[in-house]
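Quick one:
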Amino acid sequence: MMFVAQSNVWGSEVNEQKIIQVIAMTFEDIEMLIGMLEILAFMNDYAKKLIGKYFVVELNSIFGLLSKLKDLNKEYAQLEYQDMLKEIDRLEKKYKFRFIRDKIAAHKDSNIDLKSYINIWNAINYISLNEYWTMFVTHVDKVLMKYYPNEKKIYFLMRQQPLEGAIATTSKGNEYIPFFGFEIIGCPQGRGLVAGHR
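Output:
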């Protein structure tokens, strides 16, 4: 793993590079959820739909970040962003992911009926998630290629490339608390994984 950042993303000010950096982090989160779904292929359907529910939340995060980007990039706001809105409108008519996010994923509302619950859980499936995800991947790639090729390299392409040679690392320190009290770490020479107790 390697992290690279431009100088203007270290502060709390919202700017285009910071938004792109957070989009890249959200992509990484979604890729992790996809990996979990692949591992759970033979688990019960509820487990898969539960992860799918959080997939919907992350997809909504991408939309929110792109909406912030359009406020800073007027050409994008007038062109590609409008195309994306049309595509999202088409998908929302089919799957209602915004409703799912608002009613059972990011929030849990009690003001929906049983039929709506059934429709919600039916809408969370491989086909619907993949359709939204593919749309966002295609859109973000197009935007990065046109307006932010340097950020595409830094935040999207570099993390997918193995690097030869020794890389300096920093310890997580005592502030990091692993989920189960130990962390899975890589073995020397890539010989598998071991649990590292803290």
